[in-house]
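User: Structure tokens for this complex, please. No commentary.
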Amino acid sequence: MDKRADIVSGAASAFEADCFRGAGIDKVLAPSGASTRTLYKHFGSKEGLVLAVLEERHRRFEERLEAAAKGADAVAALFDTLRQWLEEHGARGCMLLRARAEYSGASEEIVDLVRRQKSAFRRRVAARVEAALGREDDSLATQIWLLFEGATAAASVADLSVVNAAKAAAASLVEEAKRNAC
Amino acid sequence: MDKRADIVSGAASAFEADCFRGAGIDKVLAPSGASTRTLYKHFGSKEGLVLAVLEERHRRFEERLEAAAKGADAVAALFDTLRQWLEEHGARGCMLLRARAEYSGASEEIVDLVRRQKSAFRRRVAARVEAALGREDDSLATQIWLLFEGATAAASVADLSVVNAAKAAAASLVEEAKRNAC
DNA sequence: CACAATGTAAAGCGATCGTTGTACATGACA
DNA sequence: TGTCATGTACAACGATCGCTTTACATTGTG
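Assistant:
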């Protein structure tokens, strides 16, 4: 009976169906059935709710990444997880980046949160690259990260096979980096 | 004295500074100084204006791509043009994809336009890949496209050097494709 | 001169926005 | 039993939303 979690989860659905600015308080509260009074008790403002939704979304995605990291190829697993995530949640572009874009002129706090989240994610990719390669390779990590973000964005205007294309490209780049070490 | 073009150009600035839903008619009209009456004579609705802005934006970017295609390496030139574009316009993520996200639950017409624009862009990338490789390679073209979209997205939360990383990755993938042909 | 095209200024439409206030129900715990 | 935290329902706040309307100025063309 955690009403706060109910609101966050329902708000996430509303923000996906519509956009952040486009989803009014009533639409945001409809899935959880909470009252406006309760929302403002917990979050203070709509912006506070958005921050909570973004934090929860990022936490959940990183959890999923960790759970799927068992396989041999840690880099390929990134893209398998992404594909599974997009199949479940739909491909409308990264929610964090969408929030950043909508609030880039309105909330410095949201812009900053997303920047930190993406920086943390890039570090996570770098750790996987190191695991696959046996050594650090920062520019390779950036390249894999770009393929990941590219696939996420492109899936909103193309089909999900772009994720497989990104996975194959990442494998090529890792293989080439291995060869260059010999 | 083309007022219509003035409105489109000014509206593009407003949509960049704020977001699409967040920029009201008054803000949209402020840069051009036009009246609401004139706007609705030309575009019929705010959605009509957004469509015109997106078409203009895409047309301008493709023009820029064509103008910069003189160099030897047609694929690398893609990323040089992107970097230059982002330096001029700022890196807030692809405007077309931002519009798609904001109107995904509100305007099928905008969603469709962006899908067609991105499809055309991917075909343009494929043509460059063919020029660089001497033969068609559809999956390589997709991979280059993903690097491009990834760099565009990532530049909004990191620095512009990600564009160079994408360019280097694209070069690697093209080189490997050349080797596989021998 | 007449006229159509194209523009501006300004008021106002109903609707919705994010937010707050008031009043009441519930259950846990002292 | 009393109290406190947490929830609900519902009306209303001022502001702003997208959009329409009325009325008037400017300009080029026949």
